[in-house]
Amino acid sequence: MFGRELRWRSITLLYVYGAPVLTVCRLMGVSERAVRRWYALFKSTGDVMPRRQSKQHEFPAEVLAHVSRYVAEHPCFYVEELRQTVNEQFPGTPSSASTILRMLHFGLKLSRRVLERRAREAIPMEVETFKCKLKGFYSFPQQVVFVDETAKKSEKCVEQTWLNPWPLPRSIVILENARIHLYAELEAVVHACGAMLLFLPPYCPQLNPIEVIFGRLKQWIVRHANLAFREQPEQVLEVALCLCLKEDGGGVNLFRHCGYGESGLNESVFSVNEQ
């Protein structure tokens, strides 16, 4: 049985970020039937677990007004960013991801179609801007380093230096365009190495090899090692990652799939019509 957190992440991708159902399935490693069932549960009960009727919360009017303004002004918002603004403006107000989603759906009556339309109207320019910025520096896939936070050991930052000056390999750092990544210290550290720092356009997991490989890992684990993963997660992940990358040509095909070709960017992947 899939856990609550994975279900909420799936609904967030589907409802707030407008990701197609099949894309959510690939990223989360679950079936289309499961995603549609969870979304139906959320719309009817406000929860993603069966046989649980969520309380119909009465959200404070001032909080709803703030969220409504923020969503209107930032059509490509991230849930984490919205949570942070609620915490800053209204300390003590519940602001978990599930609460934010309920607020959008039940409090503001914003359908997935409305949120998706607003975001899609803003995304093409974001994608085009990102492509133009990267195109001026990109020559081959070994240049780009995608970073996402899961867990970390700070001593690794001291033991090893990963970045090189541009245009050498590992000289273009690409992060998600989330508010938590936008701080001067990070930019200073990257630029001190002579490397470039760019941010992905919002709601574009297809441009991020990390998102794609995570989906493949989850699918492999569900299909081949679902029970073993609970007992030995690190060993299963090591095997799964090795096999998935081997099938993908050591990651070369993965980068090509996301638009980062051997001699330049694949324009079709970055096409506005594809977003």
TrEMBL record:
Pfam families associated with the record: DDE_3, HTH_23
TM spans (from-to): 12-29
Keywords linked to the UniProt accession: Membrane, Transmembrane, Transmembrane helix
Residue ranges annotated for the Tc1-like transposase DDE domain, each copy included: 155-231
Cited Gene3D superfamilies: Ribonuclease H-like superfamily/Ribonuclease H
GO molecular function, one term: nucleic acid binding
Protein name: Tc1-like transposase DDE domain-containing protein
Species, as recorded: Lagenidium giganteum
